Amino acid sequence: MPINYYIFLAVALFCVGVAGVLTRRNAIIIFMCIELMLNAVNLLLVAFSKMHHHALGASVPTAGIDGQLFVFFIMVVAAAEVSVGLAVIVMMYRNTHSIDVNFLNRLKH
Amino acid sequence: MVAVLLVLIPLVTGLAGFFFKSEGLAKGWALLSSLATLVVVLIGLGMARDSAALHFDCAWLPELGSRFSVALDGLSLILTLLTAIVFPLIFISTWRDKYSKPWNFYALMLLSQAGLLGVFVATDALLFYFFWELALIPVYFLASQWGGERRIQATFKFFVYTFVGSLLMLIGIIWIYSHTPDHSFSIKSFYAMHNKISGKDQTWIFWLMFLAFAIKMPIWPLHTWQPDAYEQAPTAVTMVLSAVMVKMGVFGLIRWLAPVVPVGFWAWGDTVSTCCIIGMIYASLVAIKQDDLKRLVAYSSIAHMGLMALAVFATDANGMQGVMIQMFNHGINILGMWIVVDLIERQFGTRKISELGGLASKAPGLAILLMIVALANIALPLTNGFVGEFLLFSGVFSSAATHYNVVFTCVALLSVILAAVYTLNMIGKVFFGNTNALTSRGVDIKFNEKVVLAAIVVIIVFVGVYPKPVLELTKETADFLLTSMNYKP
Amino acid sequence: MGITQVLFWFLSIMAILAAILVVISKNPVHSVLWLIVVFVAISGHYILLDAQFLAIVNLIVYAGAIMVLFLFVFMLMNLNAETEPQKNRWLKIAGVVTGGALLLVLVAALKKADLKAQIAEMNKGDIGLIHNLGVTLFHDYVVPFEISSVLFLSAMVGVVVIGRNEREQKDMWPHGNNYGA
Amino acid sequence: MTQLVWLVPVLPLVGFLINGLFRKSLPKSLVGIIGSGTVLISFILSVVIFGDVRHEGFQPTVVDLWDFISVDKLHISLAFQVDQLSALFLLIITGVGFLIHLYSTSYMHEEEGPHYARFFSYLNLFVFSMLVLVLGANFLILFIGWEGVGLCSYLLIGYWFKNLDYGYAARKAFIMNRIGDVGFLIAIFMMIAKFGSVDFAEVFGKAGSVSTGVITAITLLLFVGATGKSAQIPLYTWLPDAMAGPTPVSALIHAATMVTAGIYMIARSHVLYDLAPVTMNVVAVIGAATAFLAATIALKQNDIKKVLAYSTVSQLGYMFLGLGVGAYDGAVFHVMTHAFFKALLFLGAGSVIHAMGGEQDMRKMGGLKKWMPATHITFLIACLAISGIPPFSGFFSKDEILAAAYGKNPIYYVVGVFTAFLTAFYMFRLYATTFLGGFRGTHEQEHHLHESPAAITIPLWVLAILAAVAGFLGIPAVFAPNAHWLGAYLSPVLGENAHGIELEKGTEGMLMVVSVVLAVIGVVAAWARFAKKPELGEPTGFGKFLANKWYVDELYNAVVVRPLDLLAQFLTFFDKHIIDGIVNGVGRLVQYGSRQLRLLQSGLVGGYVLLMVIGILVLFLVELFTKH
Amino acid sequence: MNSILLSAIWGIVMMFSGIFTKSKTAIRNTAVLGLALLVIVNYADMAGYHVEIDTHKMLFFDTFGLLGNAIAFVSTLLLVLLSGRDMEKIGNNLAEYFALIFFVLCGVAIVTTFNTLLMLFLGIEIISIPLYILTGSDKRNLKSNEAALKYFLMGSFSTGLMLLGIAFLYGASTTGTFFIDDIWNQRPQVAPVFMAGLLLLLVSMAFKVSAAPFHFWTPDVYDGAPTVFTSFMATIVKVSIFVGFIRLFDEAFGSAQQTWQIFVALIAAATLFVGNITAVFQQSVKRMLAYSSIAQAGFMLLALLALNGIAKEGIILYAAAYSLATIGIFAILIRMKDYTFEGFNGLARKQPVLAATCTIFLLSLAGIPLTGGFFAKYYMLTSVIASGHYLWLVVFAVLCAAVSVYYYFRVIQAMYFKDGEGTTEREPSSGFKGLLVVLAALVILLGVFPQALLSQLSHFIYTW
């Protein structure tokens, strides 16, 4: 498939994630949407990785492997982030019994 | 050495002054320091103009191309002399004023003196800018701390207004600096740029820097900080502001702007001159309607400064020397005016002209001294003000820089008439007539005040009758200025 | 249209549809489930792109562990569709419009990209194999790998800090708090 | 001796300083001695100098004291010039000045010590300024004296500072003078620009080398200065108000010396005026108009000093008429005679006022000749002199001017001679209501009436003699050829044809007869009208118009003062609310902006992200629409 | 490399210190020791003594980055010395807080010396994740909770943007590289993708340094976070990310400067505007300082815009001057009873030393000459003027600086010119005051003789 398809697919997924962040009020859903965005990026990286490998694989066997490793790191970071994020959300929930982000507006202006 | 001492003495004594936690000590210290400065200036005056002691130069920020270089030429000398005279006079005349935490007050006064002197002696643009701000900050604190009821707002307006100006000036300075071939802030490098900056850029630079000076002077319509600030600041500070600080604007104009961007200067001369003239007439008219003595003097000052700026833009030998001598004269005269205002306010607790009256019968000494100062302020012959204004107007009239010189002169001269109107009005209402309940308690001035006013009168008359020494002092500077300003592309 | 294409389109449509459903589902649990579907679809893409190891990891870590964690939290909080108050409709529309606009703009910015010649196809490389990845990871990428441990450490410490019961220190703040007063 | 001319002004200055500085400690007698003594010495010195000057072939001497202003190409020194003209003026100023000082020692005796000293110090300062004015060797020094006398006039008019009205009068005098001074200043600037100098010698020397337009402008501007100082239309209104000052002041400043400064100045710069016929005409017209206008107003005034004031204005008009028609020496001659008889009139009036206990309203006087013989006689002499009755001095000087006016343009003559008639009339109206008839004041005043002491009467007598005989210094050619001593004396300064256009002897005689006859008619008419029935009724109709001074003050108020006041008021408003409003508005705008901008900080994550994404969108759009 | 290793190790040490001792002083002293060591090893690194580890070019230790580190470490040391005691009040996890701070410093050390986008990403994450925690560390305080959640959500969102940008850049390079010095060389025919990546990276970095319009998290987070950590975030974290920001754009996109300058100019203008204007309205000094930090970021963006030698020198100087002053103010603020402007009323009478030093810090922030802040701003302006373009931005920046005077001087006015009961919670120790005075002296020294630092800087940067 032409790489452009992947780009558009990833961008589309990313934008769906963004739209989700913009439209939802549930903190966890928002967080999930962010995960969706990260996955879109992962997909794109893998596609690019494949693209580079396709272009240069003949001369450099490991061409494109960087992208996949980057995805690996993103997953690692995402996992860490999820743990922290959920902890924060739970803490919040313990205090307010809500995970509605619009409820969080003591701090403004 | 002389030049650097001028800055160092008030700076060091000022910093030390914070630690004299006794009123008498602090006062004495301040007076002593200011007298020491005066002595140093007088020594400087006594030296040959090319004496090495009048220059000082050492490395400061080599990477930036900025050096700690100060020098005293005629223009600097006359303004440092003014500063050095004004401060002891202020200290003596306000000897009886009471301040909370007087040590801080006097220390800040000395610091502002350091800044002022620094502005006048700096021959490095960055250093100049430093001192420019150093003069401002203590004044801000002085006025905000010890001022009148609306002091915080008024002083803040003053501060922000001038700060905006000085920041714009900083841009101009940096621009020139970054275009000097040797990346130097030295005044020589700046002067060497006068024919290297394109006309369009000169316009930019001109306005950026001019705004700073115009605000400081102030030139109409950028003047509204002044009446408020003068009104609200404690009188000692008002004296500093009006006697010396506003001169920084004119000084900046002729030292740092005119020779650097002559083309911009020529191109915008008419515009600025028009503003100056409007300001002169305008301020004089507004002064007529003021009921507060301080505001009245403030507006009168605007009119006078407008004239000086006008003459600078006239680019004429007479006018240029007039500007220099008038800066000195105006400083002395307005100081006298403030002292009188201060005396009145201290005695009667009011500055409202409408509440006063008949003071001449209670305080004849005050009345006479004020009269002389006021006459100098309206430039009566044989007072210093006349020499200055005569040269100024003559310069404007003979100006080759504008086609409208005759119109400018004639319209500007209206302010001379109006000055008489508001000054005599004020004298009449405050001193003449019968005393009222308030003023019948009045007593004549005390010894220290008499001394100060007498000193001022002596200066007024001396310069008015024999201005030659002062004029000779600034001759070289004026010649140089005119040569460099007459550059045409 | 070869099998690759068919799979591509299928997985793409599945991913996007599932993603949209994640966003629009009222019930958060449904959202989680749809997100798993997205991950599965993406894993499919990985396989199409010869990233076999990542595909597996994606399924295990994301669809498995992380999503379970999400579900777990949901269950813990006992949240359901009704508890989520509705957002202001205009804000919602604005969100959707903005998201759409972002997509448009990105596409517009990228459509000029002249990358069409480059093809991603299946079974044309082995970089995605665990062996190759491992070699590179522990050779060239050993520093970031080690450093990511700091990340985990900090996440761990963080969760401990956040999660620890603080009841024993009730009166640490006798004057009340000042934050943002 | 001429080298020591600087002593002449310096002595009064010393007197001023001594009296001014030690006014609290000096006894009154000493104050009087210092005040008058310094002027007396100056007078003696002036006489000596005059002795030097009047010799044939005396060359004008410039005494250079020091460089006053020396800038670039402009060099102005503080220099005094001694020549025939200035020597003459020295005599008049110090002579009359001394008499008036002497007079004042008695007249002001009731003042308290410090104020008494203040008065004398002011007077001395005035004499100093006036001397500087006439001695100055260039226009700037002249201008210094010029403004100096204005200042002294201000100080002396406002001498009784407790009375606010006097203060206003003083202010008015100063400001109107200043308006004139501005014209003068511009003229000086023009000289500097065109001639590069303000020295008389140099300016006059170069006068021919510039265009007539420039000369006309300079002379007109100088004349503007003169209208202020010498109370001519349109700047004359201050002089009548200036009568608020003590009477000796009116005599010295507002009659004898200061107000003639304008005439002196124009006579001094006659070289320029000769080159500017347009200006000459303007001067003549203004002079004639002023003479007429003031005379008509004087007809209906009831204040004794006001009458004299308007008479002064009128006489000054004469002098300008004389200048305008080229009769420079006639004008100077009239300055001199006028100094004598007008000083005399004022001093006499002062004596009367003194006797009346400060009363100045003629309606309350009458029959004073019974009580004040000396004052009466001297006053009568002065009235005759001013009315132009031969052989009193006024006749000679006035007729010289009238003759020249006729030579230039008969209309000038007609106006002049009619004014002379009015002069005779109102002077004798004054004389008759004051000295003739019965006393109309209160009993208390009547009880008080007395002749003034010697210190007052001596100056009266001296001046009376001078007023009577001074005319013989300028005997017209009709009576004896070459007997015009003054003309001859001044000719080195004023030039050979300073008489204006010479008339035939017959014509001149005719004119003389006409003016004398008219003057006599005026005298007789006034005598007849007021000697017996001196009650002055409320003026009506045109009389009211005259009594109200043609409503000129009101006109000025409406045309200049009010609008200016309104403008000032508007500008004060403008300053506070518009300009300062804008400045404060910027501040308020920032605060307003702050209040609005903070609303973006809604506290909602969704909103924040939305704005962020919009930010990204904007960046991408910029990227899309910029070309690289 | 030294500092990365040491900070990571010391983070673990701190983690365990809480187990071995209950003494808060001991924990704090351990942290101070660690920070002092960090300063030393970082200096050693600069002097050429460092642990040899083959990073495969993932990290590149140049003096620019190391200087950035040095400022961060010294600032942290000062922060802990000044406000370390105040951390105890937040909660009883003191050891963990310190551990997190050390982890953040590890991230800082990575962000200032990264050479690939991967390291940048990791570094940013290592900084961010502990910060989420620190922000929320005052657990029973709803504001703290709220701040943490907001920070977390928005931070993750920006991470997503950053990753998308990195992905684009990766795709755009011909051989697929993450090395920042390679990206430009391999940029060729795919400008749109490249530009998209660049923009997204710009946006995400702008988010991290709180540049408008990506700054919205800043006021809320700074306000809600415990003040000690606000101070930490506003200074150390912000300026080191700035160092990374400059590094990224200089190395990776320096040659394409014209193509992105306009975006930086827009962002800088917006940041200056929003930061300064909004700060005017604030009633709480803490929140005002949050906006002020945005405004200062706007000024620092000028360095990014110009990106010449002066700019790089300047950003270091700016970092130093800004950090010192801000830490000082926060240290005083923490001790205040009342965080509003009114709370400062009349402070000068009760605490003259605090008021005086606070004034110096505020003057420095406002950029008044004779303080370090002046030269900082001076460098920013000079760098842009020297680059010859965007003079309007300079004028705009200057006008905004004038606005900034309004809110900085409000504090001064409150302390000196207004009467009130403004006071600290308890009498500050003389050691605290002494440190403040030292800090103020440093600020002034920077303003009068920036020579000491400047000559070092130009030496390092021009021989780079």
Question: Would you write up a description of this structure?
Answer:
The complex is a heteropentamer of chains A (109), B (489), C (181), D (628) and E (464). Chain A has 109 residues and is an all-alpha fold. Chain A has one domain: Orthogonal Bundle (Helix Hairpins), CATH 1.10.287. In chain A, 76% of the residues lie in helices and 0% in strands. In chain A, helix 1 (3-23) runs antiparallel to helix 2. The model of chain B has no long low-confidence stretch (mean pLDDT 89). Chain B has 19 helices and two strands. The two termini of chain B are 39 Å apart. By secondary structure, chain B is mainly α. Chain B has a domain at 268-489. Chain B is globular. Chain B has helices spanning 2-17, 23-46, 74-93, 102-121, 125-146, 151-179, 187-192, 199-216, 225-232, 235-257, 262-288, 293-314, 317-348, 359-362, 364-377, 384-398, 405-431, 447-465, 468-485, and strands spanning 55-61, 66-71. The radius of gyration of chain C is 22 Å and the shape is globular. Chain C has helices spanning 3-24, 28-48, 52-77, 89-110, 130-139, 142-163. Chain C folds into two domains: 3-80 and 91-127, Four Helix Bundle (Hemerythrin (Met), subunit A); 141-181, no CATH class. Chain D has 628 residues and is mainly alpha-helical. Chain D has a domain at 563-627. Chain D contains 25 helices and two strands. Chain D has helices at 7-21, 28-53, 84-107, 113-135, 139-157, 164-195, 200-206, 212-229, 238-241, 247-256, 261-268, 270-274, 277-299, 304-324, 328-355, 373-387, 393-408, 410-435, 443-448, 454-469, 485-494, 505-531, 542-547, 552-597, 605-625; strands at residues 61-71, 74-82. The longest helix of chain D is centred in the last third of the chain and has 46 residues, at 552-597. The mean pLDDT of chain D is 87. The interface between A and C is large, with 76 and 83 residues.
